[in-house]
Amino acid sequence: MGQSLSEPETSKQSAFCQNDFYKVGSSCMQGWRMNMEDSHTHILSLPDDPGTSFFAVYDGHGGAKVAEYAGKHLHKYITRRPEYGEDVAHALQQGFLDLDQAMLNNEALREQMSGSTAVVVLIKGNRLYCANAGDSRAIACVDGKLDVLSFDHKPTNEKERERISSAGGYVEYNRVNGYLALSRALGDFGLKRNTKIEARDQMVTAYPDVEVREVSEEWDFLVIACDGIWDVLSSQAVLQFVQEEIAQGIYPQQICENLMMRCLAPDCQMGGIGGDNMTVIVVCFLHGQPYEELVNRCKEAVAKRQAQTAKRRSHWNRLQDGEATEQHTSRSHSSVTLASEEGKSEEKVGNGRLEDDSSGSESERSDEVQTPSLTTAPVEEASTSENGNDEERVAPSNGEQAAEKVEPKAVKAVSDANEKKLVQTDSTNDSAEESSEEMDLK
């Protein structure tokens, strides 16, 4: 991040302009940086092309000279291109390169070790052109939804890395030649010295990408800002922030100030996030209507999004409740299964009843193995009487039905258990025989 102030500089330079088609606000703030290096431009009607609007943000690095020069002159180089009347997109691309060449020919600027991003939105008639070089960004809100108008140029992008390598450079630490975190910019002439290739092919180039859109009455607003904003918030988050502010009737310049304060880091120990210079332009489309019409459209969009969010939250809660019920049922089933597994250590007779040593006599167990009950009625648990005699209540068996065969393994398991029981003391055997006789009498 470089050197930082001990406290952020939060004074803001804000501006406002309006006509029948646009209500525009802008603001910039130094923040934690030692100096302010950004510049910006908003022109509702270009001098060389009345009726055409021009909005731009320039994020300087290594000094403010390049950004300041671009802020004053880039729109002039664009409109003076011979192809401007027929091919605005090409005029934008060549205008960026012309400005860069003009600065290279300027001795005072040529020696500067500084550069600048540039993101421009030019609206001519009902057609919008967005030209971008660097990692500043422009987005649009169309019918309440996000439309990203530019794409960041980083050295790690495959297309950018290929150009850097072809020009004799390399990417290290996600930077061009380990130095610049951008792959396209105005200025930075120390990285544009390969005389064997054209300006657009240099390892760092001023040649911009251009996106074209048709503007309709569904367009709500634009946000154009430097990476001091986008490093903190996503494009969708910025759209929602601005949309909610407009829905409250707040004017664009105040929205810009609020957005910057939202993105300002509370301290300078956050790795540069929220500590950069910040510049924002908000362009509201009026379409010849009062600002209140846009406010109402944004209110509807916010209410719709909140309703969708509440619906998703309700659905999620139902899923969570269902999962909790399923887990509870699963735990109950697991308890039964666990009890069954534990019972496997005990002897299992032919009717499926789990026996333990505290109920029934050895002769009963032997008889049950030989003629197991076929009834499906539930089995009551064994209980101990007050006089200490063991009693067992079982479901009656149908003697007329054929006895169910017992698997050999079950017979062997019970027989083994019987043999183990036979080694008990004589007093225990006597007691078991008496209990057996009592049960027979009953």
UniProtKB/TrEMBL annotation:
SUPFAM superfamilies noted in UniProt: PP2C-like
Documented EC number(s): 3.1.3.16
GO molecular function, one term: metal ion binding
Biased composition (Polar residues): 369-387
Segments for region (Disordered): 309-442
Cofactor(s) this protein cannot do without: Mg(2+); Mn(2+)
Bias-annotated ranges (Acidic residues): 431-442
Entry-linked Pfam families: PP2C
Extent of Basic and acidic residues compositional bias: 318-329, 341-368
Domain PPM-type phosphatase: 23-285
Entries under CDD domains matching the protein: PP2Cc
Keywords, alphabetical: Hydrolase, Manganese, Metal-binding, Protein phosphatase
PANTHER family documented for this protein: AT28366P-RELATED, PROTEIN PHOSPHATASE 2C
Assigned protein family: Belongs to the PP2C family.
Protein name per the record: protein-serine/threonine phosphatase
